[in-house]
């Protein structure tokens, strides 16, 4: 009996060593697979959003160039805006905010804005006024110092009409023949539209059979958000706000780096994989619940434990039969 027990302990020790080595190797491999999967996913989402943004910039510049060619009268400016307003249906509206008193007959504030309407397609409004003094807006002040286009910080605009909403604007100064800035043009997109575009990208990735062929007991439950340079979460699925407060991470984002860190999101430990979006001070972040990412490791631990127990019972049984012989 003693000899049988010693043999069992010896075999069991060998099995445990093999199981621990297998578990370590599997855990390391899964961590690497998870890192590659979601780092690649963050870069893919970033690239897709960057292409969308560059396309909008290109269309916006075509509109702005048309305005720059027709600075003679207010009517010619509005006609230029109208002629190009349908270039990109995803743009909510285009405006041209002129230098104060540029057109004397229009007074101090002249800002024609052609925008989509739920009932009329596109309609023209004059939004510049003492109540909406665009010359004090951060995007106008910045444009006076810039020589090329840029994206404004996200903001909320309210005027009591259907135009009200959360926006981000591609802004570009327009110069006359003397090289003087005469107006600042802008193309508005809504953050709701950007959120919908992000959801489409997520859905396409989730539906990709090749990418999701090997789930290994995971739900591959993730979602993506867009983070501003101050750490605020400006675009996210409903109820999935993920503000970033870690100063080290914020510094890395500011330096346009990619990376990963973990944090609690709504009481659930999650891995955050982030990557910069080209030509704009935003980053994409893929949020992955740690529980889902570690699921294969848990299953492997249970499987190895079961294998060790079964092998131990087999060895015990074989040694028993051998002892009787």
What would you note in describing this structure?
The chain is built from seven helices and twelve strands. With 325 residues, it is an alpha+beta fold. Helix 1 packs antiparallel against helix 2 and helix 1 packs across helix 4. The longest helix has 67 residues, at 2-68. The two termini are 14 Å apart. The model has no long low-confidence stretch (mean pLDDT 85).
Secondary-structure map:
Elements: H1 2-68, H2 74-84, E1 93-98, E2 112-117, E3 121-126, H3 138-143, E4 150-151, E5 155-157, E6 165-175, E7 181-190, H4 191-206, E8 223-228, E9 233-235, H5 247-254, E10 259-265, E11 268-276, E12 282-289, H6 290-293, H7 295-324
Antiparallel strand pairs: 1-2, 1-7, 2-3, 4-6, 5-6, 6-7, 8-9, 8-12, 10-11, 11-12
Helix pairs in contact: 1-2, 1-4, 1-7
Keywords:
single chain; 7-stranded antiparallel sheet; rod-shaped; 5-stranded antiparallel sheet; alpha+beta; 325 residues
Question: Summary?
Answer:
By secondary structure, this protein is an alpha+beta fold.
Query: Roughly what is the average pLDDT, rounded to an integer?
Result: 85
Work out the number of β strands: 12
Cα distance spanning the termini: 14 Å
Q: Helix count, per DSSP?
A: 7
Shape: rod-shaped
């Amino acid at each position: 009996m003693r000899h049988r027990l010693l043999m069992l302990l010896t075999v069991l020790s060998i099995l445990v060593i093999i199981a621990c080595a297998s578990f370590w190797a599997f855990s390391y491999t899964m961590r690497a697979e998870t890192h590659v999967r979601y780092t690649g996913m963050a870069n893919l989402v970033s690239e897709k959003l960057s292409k969308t943004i560059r396309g909008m910039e290109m269309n916006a510049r075509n509109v702005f160039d048309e305005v720059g060619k027709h600075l003679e009268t207010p009517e010619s400016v509005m006609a230029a805006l109208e002629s190009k307003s349908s270039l990109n249906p995803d743009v909510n509206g285009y405006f041209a905010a002129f230098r104060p008193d540029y057109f004397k007959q229009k007074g101090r504030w002249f800002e024609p804005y052609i925008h989509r309407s739920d009932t009329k397609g596109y309609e023209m409004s004059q939004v510049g006024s003492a109540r909406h003094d665009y010359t004090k807006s951060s995007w106008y002040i910045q444009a006076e110092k810039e020589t090329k286009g840029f994206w404004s910080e996200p903001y909320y605009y309210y005027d009591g009409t259907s135009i009200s909403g959360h926006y981000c604007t591609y802004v570009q100064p327009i110069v006359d023949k003397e090289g003087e800035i005469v107006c600042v043009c802008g193309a508005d997109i809504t953050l709701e539209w950007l959120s919908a575009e992000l959801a489409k990208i997520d859905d396409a990735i989730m539906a990709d059979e090749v990418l999701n062929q090997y789930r290994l007991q995971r739900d591959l439950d993730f979602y993506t958000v867009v983070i501003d340079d101050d750490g605020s979460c400006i675009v996210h699925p409903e109820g999935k706000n993920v503000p970033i407060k870690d100063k080290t991470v914020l510094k890395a984002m500011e330096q346009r780096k990619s990376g990963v860190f973990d944090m609690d999101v709504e009481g659930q430990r999650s891995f955050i994989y982030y990557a910069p979006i080209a030509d704009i001070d935003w980053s994409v972040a893929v949020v992955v619940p740690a529980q889902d990412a570690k699921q294969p490791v848990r299953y492997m631990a249970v499987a190895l434990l079961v294998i060790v127990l079964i092998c131990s019972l087999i060895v015990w049984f074989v040694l028993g039969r051998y002892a009787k012989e």
